Amino acid sequence: MKNVKSIISSLLLASSIGFVACTEKMDIDVNNAPPQLAIYGSITTDIAQHAVTVMRSSNYFSNSAPEGISGAIVTVSDGDEVFILTESPSEKGVYLTDPNVFGVEGKTYTLKVVVEFDGVTDEYEATSLLPYSVRVDSVTFRQSDMSDYIVDALLYGRLPESNNNYLNIKTYKNDNIPLNDKLSNFNIIVSENVDRKGIDGAVCMDFFTGERFTNGEVSGENMVSIEQGDLITFQICSITKEYANYVLNAQKELQGSMPIFSGPPANVQTNISAKNAIGQTPVCGFFTAYSKQSWKVLFYLSS
Q1: Taking Cα atoms as reference points, which of 140, 87, 102 lies closest to residue 291?
Q2: How far apart are the first and last CA of the chain?
């Protein structure tokens, strides 16, 4: 479908360039950058324990992971009902709903977190509409025009009648092994025409496969690979425009500026805001709601 483009996250590129001379020395102290309060969470149409994480960020060069924050009061509401989240007994700073909670398409969900950070207690809030789901008719495979070791997955179906045209494609193989669970591999599809609802073979994912890949001739940390006979599960998530932009901007920041001397990417914006903004505590993260549709297919590609 010509009006749908697949934005596949690029492989991270590590470049090393030596300079003969420099005209000015620049000292950037990233170690002393103040830690931030980081809040991430989501609610979906799945019946599950939905999670919100409340963390303290670490310094750029720190070898330690961000630290979870205990003692927060975390709730999610849909305007009619309030879900109270409790902290996981095994993961500090991870707050969970009851296991029978699920999101409803078309409702707006509000996250509220009351937490103490660096001696200041404040309430943080974010809202997200839960978009209507896409209809999935089928997913097929074809050899990609880009290379003989790349396979395109083609999506057929229909976008919801509402003006939401943003999808996040998640993939799993065999026993629910995630293939693109890293942020750098999140795949966002954006429909450019709100009047065209049919999805007629849009490339929704690229996979690496074949002898050149399995023999190690082609390799890479972020490569998503499958083999003949794998059972592939496609999870087609209908997401908001705001969350799509958040993921795409975060991917740009992870990849760095290309070309290398271009301007820096814009800061990744959060939808988390402080109610009182006491002390101007820096906060990052995102809360989103989205619907899911799944499709399973065995991968076979004739040579």
Answers
A1: 102
A2: 26
In angstroms, rounded to a whole number, what is the distance separating the alpha carbons of residues 197 and 157? 9
pTM higher than the cut 0.90? no
More confident residue, 178 or 191: 178
183/248 Cα distance (integer angstroms): 9
> Is residue 228 within 8 Å of residue 300, measured between CB atoms?
yes
In angstroms, the Cα distances linking 153 to 44, 69, 74, 94, 162 are: 24, 40, 39, 34, 25
pLDDT, tens digit, for every residue of 68-95? 999 999 999 999 999 999 999 999 999 9
How many angstroms separate the CA atoms of 66 and 295, rounded?
34
Which of 21-41 are b and which e, b meaning 16 or more Cβ less than 10 Å from the residue's Cβ? eeeeeeeeeeeeeebbbbbbb
CB contact at 8 A, 185 and 255: no
Q: Is the pLDDT of residue 12 over 50?
A: no
CA-based radius of gyration for the chain: 21
